Amino acid sequence: MSAPLSGPPDPTAAAARAAVRAAEIQRLTQLRAKSVSDATWSAYLGVWERWSTWATAHERPVLPADPHDLAVWAEEAVYPPATAADDTSSNKTTSSKTTSTSSTSKQSPRGISASTLNKWMAAVTFIHRDAGHPSPLEDPTLSSVLKGLRRDMVENTTTTTARTGTGARQAPALMTEHVERIMTAIDSSPTRGESLLEVRDRALVLLAFTSAMRASELAALNVEDLEPDEAGLIVRIRSSKTDQEGAGAFLAIPWARRAHLCPVRAMDDWLDRLSQQLAVQDPTHRDSAPAGGGGPGRSSTARRSLPVRRAMVADLHGAVLRSLFHNGRVGSTMTPDPHQARMARLAITKTITARARAAGLQAADAGGRYFSAHSTRAGFATQAADNGVAERDIMNHGRWKSIAVARGYIRRGELFDDSNAAGHLGL
């Protein structure tokens, strides 16, 4: 029995299969794009643009990159080649003194840091693998060069620190005494801390300090992420720098003993005022029903009842920390661009810096650096360690994944505790 003859290919079926495959590719491409956050992808593209520009200017292949070329690029990024102006300045500086270093040694780094170098290589690896190429970092020569660069930078940084007395440029820690000075400065204003801006900034500083949240996490916080509780406030962090897949975390913010330093009272005051202001701007919007009933000038010393606090959260939605405009209006989800309603990460950093400066605060180091949003996170770990909180509890609350990073702050707070051997010499 002969096999049935196959007919001509059905163009309709082929077109349908092609359409299905195209839709599958589109979905997979979208999922692949979501493997990293928008901020990370933007940073990767910025690094790739740097590499592409350098490689094109030096007539080197861009993709896939040659490991030797990447090694040269990295070395030049860490130790930029001296320009004619640099040579002239160096000659003026060194004409009257000799150096004890060998002619092959490097001067202290003037380019990128070791952490930036790691980020650059991570970007190069990601772009290569995304394009179907193996990572150039698998090349043993390139790996060895990068390891040597990192060791060289550590040695040079140590030498510079010993010579100048300066250390790593970390954000200065904002301690409890500093936070209290900021609150005092707010309360001493002509409006006695009752303006809409002051109420918001009080809540911002106190929440940043007690939660140890990053500026990006504070900016992303929504009212729906707040859960009033008898013991204080539960804050949900949906995703963060170290939680790209959005597993989430919950933080418990307790009532403070001192009312003017209480983050829970401050947040209740802000949500109450936000609700009232939104009601004035848009009486028809659900985001505007006044729930607290306190009004401007309400004292922060009394706790609101739990039903009232829950009602405030239920009657609001959208960003917790809102933009405030020159016309006195507050950012609303009903604006043409609702993203403008939310304080940006940079705005949060600038606000904390401005409030610290207004309180006369400045780091007591040689550089006289100002406090930033990261200072509240660093200050939380340092102050908690100074007050005897266990290391694991500090790391859990601050969600530090790296013990080394967390201990960098914790040890500063434990320098003068009972474990300090110099305090037990009988002097």
Summarize the structure.
This protein is mainly alpha-helical and 427 residues long. The chain has helices at 11-33, 38-57, 67-78, 84-94, 114-130, 140-164, 176-187, 196-211, 215-220, 263-281, 306-314, 345-358, 373-386, 391-398, 403-413; strands spanning 226-229, 232-237, 249-254.
- 3D shape: globular
Largest sheet: 3 strands, antiparallel
Cα gyration radius (Å): 28 Å
Q: Count helical runs.
A: 15
Low-confidence stretches: 83-109, 158-168, 287-299
Biggest sheet strand line-up: 1-2-3
Structural class by helix and strand composition: mainly alpha
DSSP strand count = 3
The percent range for helix content is 40-55%
Averaged pLDDT:
76
Query: Hey, roughly how much beta strand do the residues contain?
Result: under 5%
Q: Between the first and last Cα atoms, what is the distance in angstroms?
A: 109 Å
Order of helices and strands: HHHHHHHHHEEEHHHHHH
